[in-house]
Amino acid sequence: MGGLCTAARLLNEGFDVTIIEKESTIGGKVNVKYEKGFKLIDEGNLTYYPSLYIYYPSAVDDTLCSDKNDTVMNIMVRGPNLKVSRIKWNISEIQNYRNVVMDTVTKIEGLKDIEKHIKFEGYLTPYDLRDRFNSYYGTAFGLSPALYQSIYLRPHLKSKEISNLYFIGSSTHPGNGVSIIIDGTKVLTKMVIDDNK
To answer: What is the pTM assigned to this prediction?
Structure first.
């Protein structure tokens, strides 16, 4: 997946990119589990093959915690939106899925003993995202956590159908995450300026 993400960024910069994939579908070794996980999510279920987005802001900003021995880590997991969800998101379901996620996290080199270092943890469910942040169907990553809403398959920055209609944000290509959206705004700004010369 890293090579695919790099290719997408290079395409955005105007490079001619050819992707060579050994398998019949993209994603290398993770593809089969990833695909199963997306299928479960599309059907409104949680996956036992969670794809994780781990953000560790303490690695770049040591002012986040008053105690210099503490750090902040954010782990986000794809899940079904409230339109298709079969999950009640009660305490029991949250705890059970937390354990599935932590089982995945502790298999990552450098995070094997993470649980003994946790001082506080909190959760945002799709209900929290909908109710507190007015997020459409409680989604965190845009319109849908489906495969067709990932990587290069997201809607692009410029509409093909309507002139001078542009998009930016987590639901568009190049994708979500603050740094990626900031890069996307740079690309979009240049695109708008060039289109209106």
So the answer is: 0.66
